[in-house]
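Changelog note: in this version the structure field was regenerated for every chain. One regenerated record is shown below for reference.
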Amino acid sequence: MRGKRSATPLWMSFRKKRQTEGCRTSKAPSPLRSAGAPQIFMKLENRLALITGGGRGIGRAIAFAFAREGASIAVAARTRAQVESVAYEVACEFGVETLAVECDVADAESVGRAFAHTSEQFGGGPDILVNNAGIAETYPFVKTDEAMWQRHLEVNLTGTFRCTRLALPGMLEHGWGRVINIASIAGKTGAPYISAYSASKHGVLGLTRSLALEVGATGITVNAICPGYVDTEMTSRGIENIVAKTGKSADDALAVLKRASPQNRLVTGEEVAALALLLASEDGRGINGQAINVDGGTVLF
């Protein structure tokens, strides 16, 4: 939203919901965390992660993976109902503090409000930023108009720039931080009919590498994850597009996407989240400036 703030708050927090009424789970706190029991080290305890595009798909999977390891979670996206649902589920499941915030990364004012709300709620900015918000549209290049081109740059590339620019000062102040950009194998190779998308993701990789070199000695790492076709709503829309344009059945269209991988399958959001967890943790501190594929071997560089 631009201009005046609506009467309804654009954010909602959930504090340790597992211990309150209304949660859809009856799980008790893990006995390993109880008094007198051996304590297990959680890889992201006392860390705050802000995840854009956090209402579904890869972003949702990353929110769950990080919360499982003790991180507080702020999930941001344009669709308020989705991020509220994810924040609520995460708080119920893991007992961590969560924040759902409405945010359009294509709007600088919206991004500024999201970071301000996060800082207000948690007393500071994120330790871990996951730039996951993105769009993907398919058109032949000659039908790719300037508006479509700008949409992809604004969301996929400039949105990543905006969020990183606001997160970085706090990370530099604390001498620790993780920036994880969700790019694509299309950001390495290109592909027909996705010139705007591919160009924006190539830009994300350039930003990742340049910033990684700039902050490498500060305790901050900056990396990108390059998924192949992932079993998410975005891929489902791609299948619908193939069906509409080619007349193939949905099963045949899915088979085409699967065959892009030597493993003949789609990647899962949880597989992408597992790599994000490594990059976010101390275990991944030696990984910096990399663009790592999660694609079953589709692209080998």
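Spot check on this record: The chain is about 45% helix and 15% strand. Residues 1-8, 16-21, 25-35 have pLDDT under 50 and may be disordered.
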